[in-house]
Amino acid sequence: MQEWVLIISLFTPGGDFMDKRHIVLPDQQACQRAKVDVESADNPMGVKVKTLCVTKAHWTGQKPMRNVPMD
Residue 71 above 90 pLDDT? Predict the structure, then answer.
């Protein structure tokens, strides 16, 4: 079983970067469910959220995923 990482980027209403968080999850399905939950949550003061699920190997730089930028 391969661990996955949900990367959550926060932006101001004007589009300026604010912060980034990550959550390590046990598999791809859990990551996708968490991604939907985060994207559908109410965000205070108009904060914009962008999410991305990647393998832990991609996130650590050990085995990059094809067509997914390194963060």
Answer: no
Residue 25 tokens, joined: 């999850």
Residue 10 has phi, psi (to 5 degrees) of: -110, 135
From start to end of the chain, where are the E strands?
4-11, 17-25, 48-55
Model confidence pTM above 0.85? yes
Q: What is the mean pLDDT of residues 52-59?
A: 96
Q: What is the CA radius of gyration of the chain?
A: 13
Domains held by the chain: number: 1
Tell me the residue range of the domain where 25 lies: 4-59
The answer as to whether 23 is a domain residue is yes
Order of strands across the sheet that contains 4-11: 17-25, 4-11, 48-55
